[in-house]
TrEMBL record:
Residues 169-282 form the LD-carboxypeptidase C-terminal domain. Belongs to the peptidase S66 family. The keyword Hydrolase applies. It comes from Listeria grayi DSM 20601. This is LD-carboxypeptidase. The active site is at S106 (nucleophile), E199 (charge relay system), H267 (charge relay system). Residues 8-122 form the LD-carboxypeptidase N-terminal domain. The gene is mccF.
Length: 287
């Protein structure tokens, strides 16, 4: 996916960054150059003094990278709430023509799934800044494994179902709150036969239960081939992960759905990079 000498673009399609974040990006740029000989180009729309860059400018910055033949991958380093403002402003025909990977997490779930739906292009659920923030180096290992070695994805966790997923699968999804922002729009992905991946930063058990109820009412569980549930940070911090496990077991029983519960994907720094929108080999290892 990447090799020495490649050039990548960094954008912020969700909430804009402020000058206090510039040091992190400079450190990341230096690290990628020294470690992998990767050249980094920053979009001019990343930083603002206050407020947020208008959606049209954020979308234009993203499309500029897609139109640049020297850019081999686009990493979004933002998060927040505003990424869906850019969806109707993107040129999906040009995105399909370049077919280079778009990488982001959290609110960038909306773009990851939109390009899968509208351009038939895959992306990666991952925040590249995590390779600088994770003391365990798990995120760095995942970055190297996927982007340079292109090996299969290994996740550790627990089955919440009798049924199990094996072999290859195509994943969709990402952050559950942001994924549901696509409901009722032309950007919601095709779910039939896919494995739905969900994680969350915020939300107690009541809100999370409501999210899963909405998916159920959308008949998503009737159509997908399986469910991979990552870290739900607020539930973990409130020691309520067991309640989520019970909810997943109920869904598994009602729909005879394979459900794998893993702490390896989420907003925590030690998070695994996972491709969305293309068939990959999954190795799901039970603890």
């Amino acid at each position: 996916m990447l090799k020495a000498g490649d050039k990548i673009g960094l954008v912020a399609c969700s909430n804009s960054k402020t000058e206090k974040d510039r040091g992190k990006l400079e450190a990341l740029t230096t690290f990628l150059k020294a470690s992998y000989q990767i050249e980094v180009v920053l979009a001019p729309t990343i930083f603002v003094k206050s407020g947020n860059v208008p959606a049209i400018e954020r979308a234009k910055a993203l499309m500029t990278f897609y139109e640049d033949p020297e850019i081999k991958a686009i990493f979004d380093i933002s998060g927040g709430d505003l990424a869906n403002q850019t969806l109707p402003l993107l040129n999906y025909e040009k995105i399909a023509q370049r077919a280079i990977p778009f990488i982001g997490y959290s609110d960038l779930t909306v773009i990851l799934n939109a390009i899968t739906k509208k351009a038939r292009v895959s992306g990666v659920l991952f925040q590249i800044l995590q390779i600088m923030e994770d003391p365990t180096k798990a995120a760095l290992h995942s970055f190297e494994t996927l982007f340079f070695a292109q090996e299969s994805i290994i996740l550790h966790g627990y089955w919440r179902s009798r049924e199990q997923l094996k072999g290859k699968a195509t994943l969709i999804g990402g952050n559950i709150r942001c994924f549901l922002k696509l409901a009722g729009t032309p950007f919601f992905p095709e779910v039939e036969g896919k494995v739905l991946l969900l994680e969350s930063a915020s939300g107690g058990i009541e809100r999370v239960s409501a999210y899963f109820s909405q998916l159920e009412q959308m008949q998503v569980f009737d159509q997908i081939a399986g469910l991979i549930v990552g870290d739900f940070s607020e539930l973990r911090e409130q020691n309520e992960t067991v309640k989520l496990a019970s909810l997943l077991e109920e869904i598994a029983s009602a729909y005879h759905l394979p459900i794998f519960h893993t702490p390896d994907i989420g907003h925590q720094p030690a998070s695994t990079a996972v491709p969305l929108g293309k068939e990959i080999r999954l190795d799901l290892m039970e603890n």
